[in-house]
Amino acid sequence: MRRQLYLIAGFLSIGLGAIGAFLPLLPTVPFMILAAFCFARSSPRLEAKLLNHRQFGPHIRRWRERGAISRRGKIAAVAAFGFSIALALILSPWPWFLIPVAAALIGGSWIWSRPEA
Fold first, then answer.
1. Which residue ranges does UniProt annotate as crossing the membrane (predicted)?
2. For the chain, does the N or the C end have fewer beta carbons within 10 angstroms?
3. Percentage of residues in the chain having pLDDT higher than 70
4. 56 shares its domain with 97
5. In terms of domains, do 86 and 107 share one?
6. pLDDT of residue 78
7. pLDDT tens-digit readout, 23-54
8. pLDDT at position 63, please?
9. CA 2 and chain centroid, separation
């Protein structure tokens, strides 16, 4: 039962990552890292496929080995946070627009604290 849940979570993560390739606010690589984590516990064949993927494999391996995020990834994350904050300032009333600001400050500082590839 647990293996099937990890397999389902892995496929959901890949689906969200695929959507994230087209939507700027949804990150792709973190979902692929999550999918690799889930597949490691459910399907070694699918995990190997992700680890050997031309685009996502290096990111997944760097994350697993050193917890590293590339400079380009950090910049993209901060840009997405900035876009989210701008949308919240435009569309949300006081004090609700402070939630994405707080999330960006917390998430952004954590992302920048990670080692670089």
1. 6-39, 97-113
2. N
3. 98
4. no
5. yes
6. 87
7. 766 788 889 999 999 999 999 999 999 999 99
8. 92
9. 23
